[in-house]
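Section 5: illustrative case.
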């Protein structure tokens, strides 16, 4: 008897969408029914009725901060994993700006040891760049990439001078991912606006020019050293056009949900809950980024899930840390975009699963196809549902999307062939595995 049958859903396959059955065996997708064919539910240990639901590949969030080690009071791998599963996310890649930061082999292995017994999702890790840790990074096994913070952000990682940047780009042949904000502009504007107290000053400190200039530098370094480079959390129309012109040079990029659906006009209501790096931009940037997502210039969506406690966020502008949670609401926000015609279901699968799997060479992930891992999400596309704080699973206990009505919500999440989330419950605890990067 086979393990699991997903029966009668609209399955988003690599070649399009159609009603089909998905048979799972040994944690892998075993077979997909042909058009007009069905599999017998009685031949399976469990059958899930997916009629009326959309079946997508489990989402891959390639940019999260699950705060271990050092920030466990605001997130950990239990709460972060459950928030991910509730949002249809089955794989996450965790950033290095922890405490201590993941900049040495010892810190990398310590982090692996902490995560392995706690993660309820599949996972991978980045290392962070410093001015002098390249030799150690080059010895690291199976990492998502090397993260360079060209502008200061949460944590102490920062490399922005020309010499160290050239050394890293010239010496590291793996995946380079950059936080592209210009540090000198940030410092100059921080002094200029040092007396400001309103959160709207954030965008005047971390300006569009700051993002554009850092992205230009990253692209120039990529061209100089023939390195493919990935731009994290792109926020502006100007950056989008830079990447569009440089895609033939191996430049890729991601966008966050908050830079798609929130903008600076909402800061009066959000206050410091809307403070993140890079900042919220204008409505025209929202529109440009949705367009770049639809036409394929933006490779995928990643949340930059960066939880802080409400107490921390409710400090004054200068005291409140930057960052918002997002892993639970990425897929609903994008499915809401399908409802309003911004994306197709096939495009959602591409930008949440296939795209990041291809960009990072994650083996056996990102598609609903025989032989791939059975990481799946079943989503309802019918009635709108309100984003409510009481439904937030993340330890931080809040969301910048509170009060939004969204069409498209995960109902069931399958990890390695096991139903691990089902309509607000977590019926089975399954430990995720560290992914393998090709």
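Designed sequence:
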């Amino acid at each position: 008897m086979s393990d699991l049958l997903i029966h009668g859903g609209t399955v988003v396959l690599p070649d399009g969408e159609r009603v089909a059955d998905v048979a799972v065996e040994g944690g892998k997708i075993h077979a997909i029914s042909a058009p007009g064919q069905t599999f017998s539910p009685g031949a399976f240990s469990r059958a899930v009725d997916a009629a009326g639901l959309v079946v997508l590949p489990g989402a891959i969030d390639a940019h999260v901060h699950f705060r271990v080690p050092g920030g466990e009071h605001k997130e950990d791998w239990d709460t972060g994993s459950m928030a991910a599963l509730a949002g249809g996310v089955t794989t996450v890649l965790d950033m290095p700006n922890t405490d201590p930061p993941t900049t040495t082999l010892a810190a990398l292995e310590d982090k692996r040891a902490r995560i392995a017994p706690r993660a309820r999702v599949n996972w991978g890790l980045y290392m962070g760049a410093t001015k002098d840790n390249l030799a150690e990074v080059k010895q690291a096994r199976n990492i998502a990439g090397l993260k360079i913070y060209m502008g200061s952000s949460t944590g102490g990682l920062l490399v922005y001078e020309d010499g160290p940047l050239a050394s890293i780009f010239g010496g590291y042949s793996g995946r380079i991912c950059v936080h592209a904000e210009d540090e000198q502009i940030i410092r100059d504007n921080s002094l200029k606006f040092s007396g400001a107290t309103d959160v709207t000053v954030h965008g005047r400190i971390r300006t569009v020019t700051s993002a554009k200039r850092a992205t230009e530098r990253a692209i120039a370094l990529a061209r100089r050293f023939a390195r493919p480079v990935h731009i994290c959390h792109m926020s502006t129309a100007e950056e989008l056009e830079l990447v569009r012109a440089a895609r033939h040079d191996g430049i890729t990029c991601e966008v966050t949900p908050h830079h798609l659906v929130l903008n600076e006009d909402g800061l009066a209501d959000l206050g410091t809950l809307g403070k993140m790096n890079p900042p919220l931009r204008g409505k025209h940037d929202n529109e440009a980024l949705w367009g770049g997502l639809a036409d394929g210039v933006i490779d995928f969506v990643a949340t930059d899930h960066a939880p802080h406690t409400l107490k921390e966020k409710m400090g004054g502008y200068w005291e409140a840390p930057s960052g918002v949670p997002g892993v639970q609401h990425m897929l609903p926000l994008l499915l809401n975009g399908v409802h309003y015609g911004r994306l197709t279901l096939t495009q959602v699968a591409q930008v949440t699963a296939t795209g990041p799997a291809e960009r990072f060479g994650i083996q056996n992930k990102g598609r609903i196809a025989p032989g791939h891992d059975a990481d799946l999400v079943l989503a309802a596309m019918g009635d709108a549902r309100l984003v409510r704080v009481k439904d937030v699973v993340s330890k931080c206990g809040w969301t910048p999307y509170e009060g939004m009505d969204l069409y498209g919500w995960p109902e069931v999440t399958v990890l390695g062939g096991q139903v691990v989330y089902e309509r607000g419950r977590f019926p089975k605890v399954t430990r995720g595995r560290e992914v393998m990067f090709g």
